[in-house]
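Protein modeling request. Please complete all fields; requests missing the sequence field cannot be processed.
Requester role: graduate student
Desired output: 3D structure, token encoding
Chains: 1
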Amino acid sequence: MVKNKYLRYLPLASLFGTQRTRELFHYNPTILPVREEAEDVKLFVYDYNADHYEERTLENVADCVAFKNNDRITWINIDGLRKQDVETICNTFGIHALLTEDILSIGQRPKMDDVEGILFCLLNMLYFNETTRTVETEQISIALGKDFVISFQEDGSRDVFDPMRHKLKMANSKIRQRTADYLCYSMLDMIVDNYFIVMERLGEQIELLEEEVIRRSNTRSLAHINHLRKELIVLKRNIAPVRELINGFIRSESDLLDDRTTKYFKDVYDHIVQAYDFTENYRDMMMSMQDIYINNVNLRMNEVMKVMAIVTCLMAPATVIGGIFGMNFEAIPLLHNKWGFYISVGAMLFIPLIMLYLFRKRGWY
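Delivered output (365 residues):
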């Protein structure tokens, strides 16, 4: 009973960092994952054009039918995923069954598809948890159709779209003057821009770790290096495929995309390439810090070995003199001399002092 009482405060997976490793690599794309049904599903509808804006919260997915083909731009944001609700709204707006499976999937690689008149993209929003100092992900699926955008989010408690919601309320904002593809671009742009905020937080952790490694390297520093390297894996895994996703919009010949919007997607592409370059720079920094840590450990070991070697050398004269005068011969110089003991002890002290002077002169310590 006492054993279990204290062991529960010492989870071995967290102690050695293996729990985070399992979170990163436990997905198997050949096995269909089972998503837990959300307890609470919230539907937010933003219906607008240049002269009209309406924001509503719906209780039932079936109520979204009223916003189909109403000659306005409609953004339907679904927070929390239930299989039946997702299938209902996908059937209502003509979203293919394969895309429905992608929406309900777990751990999907970011991608973009053009299926039966629907431009679909799936990627992750990133957040930095200040408490655990980890990068958290939330999968979001965006379906772009004629005059509508539907977004499916896992967690309704947070997202990065609040600035866009404020712009939708402004009659003279650019997003109110444009078509649905510009709304889709705005969403992707905000997701990508938030990547830089996460990288900034992670960069601060790397800077603090760099100072720690240079000043005082220890096993805790190595654990921090290992921790941040795993977070960089999360960052790179989610950022790298987004380049292909944005490039898919740029190269797409779909009628849903206005030629004027293509240049905006190119701007997002430039940002995601820059974000990917930052992840590579962070990775190089972590490799350099690991090398610095190993070099510091080796340097400290060399210093210890140097001290031990010097001490061994200083003790050698006393060992030799004591060994000589400790032999069992009858005729030993100074054996019966009353000053013999003092002479031998003096030699044991004087010779090491000479050795220290020579070591110092040669710069060995």
